[in-house]
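Ticket opened by: R.M.
Priority: normal
Category: complex prediction / small molecule

The reporter submitted a protein together with phosphoenolpyruvate and asked that the result be attached to this ticket for the collaborator who will pick it up next week. Submitted input follows.
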Amino acid sequence: MAAKLRVVGGSPLTGEISVRGAKNFVSKAMVAALLSSDTSVLRNVPLIRDVDVVSDLLRLHGVEVDYDQEEGRLAITPGRISLPDDPVEMDRLAGSSRIPILFAGPLLHNLGEAFIPDLGGCHIGDRPVDFHMQVLEDFGARRVQEKGGMHLVAPRGLKAKPVHLPYPSVGATEQTLLTAVMAEGVTELSNAAVEPEIYDLIAVLQKMGAIISVDTDRTIMIEGVDSLQGYTHTALADRIEAGSWASAALATHGDIIIRGAEQQNMMSFLNVFRKVGGQFEVRDEGIRFWHPGGALRSIPLQTDVHPGFMTDWQQPLVVALTQADGISIVHETVYENRFGFTKALTDMGAHIQTYRECLGGLQCRFGQRSFYHSAVIQGPSPLHAADVEVPDLRGGFSYLIAALAAEGTSIISGIDIIDRGYEHFMHKLRCLGANAEKIA
Ligand SMILES: CC(=O)N[C@H]1[C@@H](OP(=O)(O)OP(=O)(O)OC[C@H]2O[C@@H](n3ccc(=O)[nH]c3=O)[C@H](O)[C@@H]2O)O[C@H](CO)[C@@H](O)[C@@H]1O
Ligand SMILES: C=C(OP(=O)(O)O)C(=O)O
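Result attached by the on-call engineer:
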């Protein structure tokens, strides 16, 4: 039976916790290891479900994966890779994350074919993979849809082609990088995503022997090479996890030191945190976030690709905005359907109304369509306890924050989803003095 959490709210979160490597980088670096037959070593790897899923997927391809949880050290030895011959296990992994699509390039280079199981990830929009497929097909791959996934073949190898992304998609940028590094010729990728996790992936690929340069105008040049070697790398910190705990500090009137949090990759979050009235102090070992007392301020906010305010911070921060004085407007421009979680917050006493229109000035891709992608939040609203069901990863963490900020006892069901991106969150809750326990 799926685990539930009983949370007695109303007390500030105070204390110290640590964050390790970023979910949205570690899994990609694991895939990059497939590009060489040498052993690659990744450090600062968190114990989260997405790492388990990608490890299992690698093992199914004959790769040796050795994880020391305590140390956070992951050793990946591809040796001789092969297509999986365990359909039951492949079926189990289908629908568990979005990473399998990134296996395409490395497998096509290695084996001339790949089987990509159906993708999972959070249900926060349609999340098509048309940009990925365009790149793969332009480079010479052909696909056949099969039960449980798609089969790709590239009998004549992969050849570089110019790529222009219609939108700076993180996944499609990574797809292009992982495919172009060993393709024949030079790839010019324009309108690329430039998230810090992508820079870290480029750093890994460069250590492996790739030749990649990034211009300031979202253009990335990738010169294909014949072979790559293993890497040793320490993952950048999880800025989404850090921002989530920081939002929890704000919503609960708390004071949290997050060891490992990195200022450089959180600039836009820190600016917003300060505008809302939260305080932070950047230290050598991490960042301290706290609610200084008094009223929080409402703000207009728009999510965007990097260097904008990232969409994955939106859900946790919205809970803090329910406690701010006045009307906040949040315009979600990355995913068309990322406000479903606000319904439960409304049930807990928050005043949130969602709109189809692009509120806050800028027009986005979703403006002329029927997606409720703008939210108006009127605060401050005292939150009361409720029984809620986790809708997705960040939505789940938001419910946790709301329950911690609310008076009374809340029950949160479906908390297993939270393990996908938050390492040891139960332990961290205890470190911060939360009254929360898992129940059957
Ligand atoms: C595992 C991982 O790293 N997940 C992150 C990654 O997701 P992911 O890589 O899936 O997100 P993308 O940047 O690709 O998606 C951004 C937008 O582009 C659209 N799109 C994308 C690809 C495509 O082929 N066609 C298309 O239309 C999506 O539907 C979405 O509206 O970046 C997102 C944006 O920072 C984050 O929220 C996710 O946490
Ligand atoms: C949307 C997210 O992840 P994924 O792409 O893995 O669903 C997230 O981390 O918030």
